[in-house]
Amino acid sequence: MPSVRNEFVDYVVELMADWARVSARRMFGGYGLYREGLMFALIVEDELFLKTDTGNVVQFEQAGSRPFVYQSRDRTVQLSYWSAPAASLDSPAEMGEWCRSAYGSALRAQAAHAHVARAGKSAKGKRK
Fold it and tell me: Are 89 and 122 in contact (CB under 8 A)?
């Protein structure tokens, strides 16, 4: 079954093509963007947000980006995704730089998660 797409998603994926092969998947009313199965960006209401962490969030702040925020039933939630700088949406080279930064953040998060999972398994094994 073909996925439902929109022009902005197709444009962003094409803009990122010089950097890497990127796929888009529908999720929660938006799209997740993936490289090699790892999500590094999301699109919500035709706005691109890129993955951040302590290693790159200052770059996004200095570029005038803002965090992705949504309202749950009882609180405001801020995710570790920040809006793509406007200039990156006009330049494949600049988009590639921001994508490299976001993908690096996603890789660090994946490594940290794997480390925590291994530590948890190790602790369970010692209790036996």
Answer: no
Whole-prediction pTM? 0.86
Tell me the CATH architecture of domain 7-127: 2-Layer Sandwich (3.30)
Kindly state the helix (H) or strand (E) to which residue 39 belongs, with its residue range. Answer: strand 38-44
Model pLDDT for residues 44-72, shown as the tens digit of each residue = 999 999 999 999 999 999 999 999 999 99
Kind plus residue range of the DSSP H or E element containing 79 = strand 76-83
Handedness of CA 86, 94, 49, 24 (dihedral sign): positive
Residue of 115, 60, 112, 104 whose CA lies nearest to 86: 60
Per-residue tokens: 48: 């691109």
- Cα separation, 52 vs 67, whole angstroms: 9
